[in-house]
Amino acid sequence: MRIGVYPGTFDPITRGHTDIVARSLQLFDRLIVAVAPNPRKEPLLPINDRVELAQIATKNFAHVEVEAFNGLLVEYVHSRGAHGIIRGLRALSDFEHEFQMALLNRKIAGQLETVFLMPSEEYSYLTSSIVKELAMFGGPLEDFVCPEVAQRLRQWYDGSKS
Ligand code: COA
């Protein structure tokens, strides 16, 4: 049983992320979508909402679970008995940051490998920040996130206006 961990801030989970989930399941028997608090990024959505939305967005995949994690990623991966880290690589601009994280994780965890997967080209420009900006200005969201995520973002911004 090969277990992969797909970590991220998921603020919120997008169709690009779920595209990576689908691809990961071709390589791993089970996948854990691991949601980081990541206060450094000052996420919009509280961690419980990000976990809940990731659960909703991945509900049609078998062998996927979603949970929050704290602390070092490599320690979390070991604690779950997982075999590898998955990261999506969209553009050259992602590379430097991803390269640094993967090498650092390998340095501190020995054998642990990071697998990079490319999302479908239709999501190659997508980020959670772009989705939030669209939501803030009332733009269309359904092509980029699942309907439940779109609804939650609209509610969030409508609430913050009133
Ligand atoms: N489709 C769409 N968007 C994607 C994507 C895909 N396939 N893959 C990545 N992204 C986007 C994300 O939406 C996000 O966009 P944003 O910046 O607009 O929010 C961005 O690319 C990358 O963010 P994220 O996936 O959250 O990664 P990160 O660089 O913030 O790192 C962790 C998050 C959790 C992996 C990292 O902080 C971590 O490991 N934390 C634990 C502490 C630790 O161990 N630190 C040492 C590690 S070096």
Question: What is the makeup of the main sheet?
Answer: 5 strands, parallel
Give me the count of strands: 5
Order of secondary-structure elements: EHEHEHEHEHH
Ions and ligands: coenzyme A
Give the strand content.
15-25%
- What portion of residues is helical? 40-55%
Quick one: CATH superfamily? HUPs
Counting DSSP H or I runs of 4 or more residues, the number of helices is 6
> What overall geometry do the principal axes of the alpha carbons give?
globular
Low-pLDDT residue intervals, each spanning 5 or more residues: none
What's the architecture, going by CATH? 3-Layer(aba) Sandwich
Q: Decide which structural class fits the backbone.
A: alpha/beta
Mean pLDDT: 95
Strand order of the largest sheet: 3-2-1-4-5
CATH topology: Rossmann fold
Q: Radius of gyration, rounded?
A: 16 Å
Describe this structure in words.
- The structure is a single chain.
- This protein is α/β, with parallel strands linked by helices and 162 residues long.
- It has a single domain (3-161), classed as 3-Layer(aba) Sandwich (Rossmann fold), CATH 3.40.50.
- Helix content is 43%, strand content 17%.
- It is built from six helices and five strands.
- Helix 1 links the parallel strand 1 (3-8) and strand 2.
- The longest helix is centred in the middle third of the chain and has 18 residues, at 92-109.
- The protein binds coenzyme A (COA).
- The site of coenzyme A (COA) has 25 residues, from strand 1, helix 1, helix 4 and helix 5.
- The site of coenzyme A has 25 residues, from strand 1, helix 1, helix 4 and helix 5.
